[in-house]
Design goal:
Blueprint: H1 3-14, E1 36-38, E2 61-76, E3 87-101, E4 104-111, E5 119-129, E6 132-140, H2 145-148, H3 161-166, E7 172-179, E8 190-197, E9 218-226, H4 228-231, E10 238-250, H5 258-265, E11 280-293, E12 296-309, E13 315-328, E14 338-349, E15 359-371, E16 374-386, E17 393-406
Parallel strand pairs: 1-2
Antiparallel strand pairs: 2-3, 2-17, 3-4, 4-5, 5-6, 6-7, 7-8, 8-9, 9-10, 10-11, 11-12, 12-13, 13-14, 14-15, 15-16, 16-17
Length: 407
């Protein structure tokens, strides 16, 4: 490719939506070729609550994006999850979007920070209408607000801990999902997702599961009603109500080694909260509320898990809830960066039938965003829990510097 063509491609990648083309006076302009583009801004993943303005269909081509976040913990005190490493790579994700036609796309996402197979997503999506789309392959399940919010859009660069405990590792599975388009229905007022999946988790991770009766698969559904489309008027204003339901039938896990059992159970709904030594049925219910206006962002979510062994009275009920608030200052200090203050409180009861096993977590901190693709955060977290051996209440703490970048 000539140098001028390379320069033109670079300009197209940096501009939001400008058509740069030359047309001969007597002949029509040729169709733009397929392109490979590396964006310098934050990845264009659909937000949990997409923009009200419908996006134009994408032109055929390929786009590559990446996101990484590292945590440095200069101080921590032992907690139920034990002390963490001083530095850890929390997210390292490479995303490839291939737009085949305006209505057909393929998405692949690799997570370099996850154990075993790095493949997070690999699915094709056909969206003939805003009201109907179909995705086939390995994808993120619709398991509530926090689990479906992508890493670059997390206010605290992480989710409440109970979300990981009550769902499954990386929230992925293999199957088919019917859903609305990212633009939603009725100008973004309504969004929905209905999925049927194998239930065993990602390909190459955990134990393989042979095809079985239809009722033994994992089913999940989520609906989101953004009444802010009617009551509020700003393009980024939100007042969204969400509801989630999921059900999974899982075989018994008993390899003879507790560590192996827990690794396999991590890919099933309910993870180690469920009676994994028995064949079991698990149901997850959730509700969430999200509000955004004038620099204020708030989200509340509650999840309830009910898992029961088949053929016995063994069961487990768990409840998790959180409230998260953030405020972006109306001015940029020294004209250098946007500053956002954030706080979150969460409560997790892993067994409603047991006494004195609740986990309380509070986090407070600040996000500094010098550019859309860069973020530096400092958060302090305090955990209150009960020691499993003595039953006495204990506290733990952590101070973490979190750095994130996207391309």
């Amino acid at each position: 490719m000539r140098a001028s063509s390379l320069a033109l491609a670079a300009l197209v990648s940096l501009a939001p939506s400008y058509a740069l083309a030359q047309q001969a006076p007597s002949t029509p302009a040729p169709a733009p070729p397929a392109r490979t583009r590396l964006s310098l801004g934050a990845p264009p993943d659909p937000a949990a609550f997409p923009s009200a303005a419908p996006a134009a269909p994408s032109a055929p081509g390929v786009e590559v994006h990446g996101y990484a976040a590292g945590w440095w913990t200069p101080w921590s005190e032992a907690s139920p999850t034990q002390a963490r490493d001083a530095f850890r790579l929390r997210f390292a994700v490479l995303r490839v979007d291939a737009q085949i036609t305006p209505n057909l796309s393929v998405l692949a996402r690799l997570g370099l920070m996850v154990p075993d197979s790095p493949l997070l997503d690999f699915h094709a999506t056909w969206t003939p209408h805003d009201a109907v789309g179909v995705s086939v392959g390995q994808f993120r399940l619709p398991l509530g607000a926090a689990a479906t919010t992508l890493a670059p859009q997390l206010v605290m660069l992480d989710r409440p801990g109970y979300v990981y405990s009550m769902t499954k590792v990386t929230f992925r599975d293999v199957g088919v999902m019917v859903h609305s388009s990212p633009r939603g229905i009725a100008h973004g007022l309504l969004h929905y997702w209905v999925a049927a999946a194998n239930g065993a988790g990602r390909v190459g991770v955990g134990s393989a599961r042979a095809p079985g009766p239809v009722q033994d698969y994992l089913y999940a559904a989520r609906v989101l009603l953004d009444v802010g489309r009617v009551l509020l008027h700003g393009p980024q204003d939100r007042l969204a109500l969400g509801a989630t339901w999921a059900r999974s039938h899982d075989p018994a896990i008993n390899t003879g080694t507790l560590a192996s059992d827990r690794n396999l159970a991590a890919n099933t709904l309910g993870r180690t909260l469920a009676p994994i030594g028995s064949e079991r049925d698990s149901q997850l219910l959730g509700a969430d509320l999200t509000f955004a206006r004038s620099g204020v962002w708030a989200q509340a979510e509650v999840l309830y898990l009910d898992t029961r062994a088949v053929g016995s009275a063994t069961s487990r009920e768990a409840l998790g809830a959180s409230v998260e608030l953030a405020y972006t200052l109306p001015v940029r200090p020294f004209d250098l960066a946007n500053v956002q203050l954030a706080v979150r409180g969460e409560r997790f009861d892993p067994d409603l039938a047991a006494a004195a096993d609740e986990l309380l977590v509070g986090s407070v901190g600040v996000n500094v965003l010098p550019a859309p693709a860069w973020r530096a955060s400092l958060f302090a977290t305090v955990t209150r829990f009960h020691a499993p051996m003595t039953g006495e209440s204990r506290s733990a703490g952590e101070l973490a510097l979190r750095l994130a970048a996207a391309f």
